[in-house]
Amino acid sequence: MHLARFPRVRLAHLPTPLEPLPRLSEALGVEIWIKRDDCTGLAGGGNKTRKLEFLLGDAMEQGADTLVTQGAVQSNHVRQTVAAAAAHGFASEVILEERTGSQAIDYTRNGNVLMDRLFGAGMRTVPGGTDMNAELERTAAEVRARGGKPYIIPGGGSNAIGALGYVDCAREIVVQADELDMQVDRIVTATGSAGTHAGLVAGLAVMGADVPVLGVGVRAPKAKQEENVLKLARETAALLGRPDAVKADMVVADCDYVGEGYGLVDEAVIEALKLAARTDAIVLDPVYTGKAMKGLIALARAGRFENETVVFLHTGGAQGLFGYQGEIEGAL
Ligand SMILES: *Cc1c(COP(=O)(O)O)cnc(C)c1O
Predict the structure, then answer these.
(1) Short-list 58, 12, 48, CA closest to 288
(2) CA of 36: how far to CAs of 14, 16, 17, 225, 313, in Å?
């Protein structure tokens, strides 16, 4: 794969640990390991940090001075982006979409939002359903008009350059599993803006590792999610010089656990948060990893992972918990 050909800025603590979850495994009757990408370090960590290593490398090569990105109000991607900007001397301009409709004070001011302010990001908020790509272009034009050089990072950092971060994660998982003499039968991850899922699939395909990835959807329906992931996985493989490496059947998303919608919490998500915390002291988030674990629990109970060793990719997000106190506390 030779990732060293791509410009990169070091932001993450790597490799992240690959650890067993003995008590959760016992509770679910499936051998479950965890890849700790909640421990990538930057501003509390999470999956966007790996993507940002390659995105900031590209931004620097292009001579940019201002990072422009967007996300939901409690976006972990925005938090990690503005932190990366601060650490490397970029200004940052972010647009937050009121995607969940919540006006709770914790949601609009605490958690990720509080940290965005701490890092000194320029921020504005727009109503749910706004054309966020148009907002990115508009903000970039404003930066240009005042003499700055913007670099647009798409929502979630999900383009082929960002997905290289998860190509590297796939490599890391395979190396760690080989060192442990452990066969990985499946990787389970939350899948949203698609870069994580696509990068893993592209990386595993290019390596010929033959490890299936199950993406648990958090927003879009299955057909749309699989289409997005496949397109990006193919673009990522093409960037690696292997345009034909990714086959359509390598991309599998299960979008049965979204519940009421993106960023909306239900009882099964809270059960997942509690189970992970009270077995192996793993802190999940309500928007992504809580939904992925909701899916993993339901599928494990339905016997879908019989005799498998499953690696759950913890993509981070615990900082978002503090935006959801009202929804969660009463159910604990
Ligand atoms: C963004 C995010 C995801 C989803 O990753 P994508 O690459 O956008 O699909 C999963 N978990 C957390 C905590 C995230 O912040």
Answers:
(1) 48
(2) 10, 5, 5, 24, 7
Beta-sheet pairing, 31-36 with 309-314: parallel
pTM (two decimals): 0.98
CA–CA separation, 74 and 76 (whole Å): 6
- Dist CA 123 CA 181 (whole Å): 47
Residues with CB under 6 A from ligand 1: 46-47, 76-77, 156, 158, 190-197, 285, 288-289, 315-317
**Which residues fall within 8 angstroms of residue 258, CB to CB, at 6 or more apart?**
217, 218, 219, 291
Which of 37, 51, 288, 293 has most ligand 1 atoms within 8 Å of CB, for mutation? Answer: 288
Q: In this predicted model, what pLDDT tens digit does every residue of 20-40 receive, in sequence order? A: 999 999 999 999 999 999 999
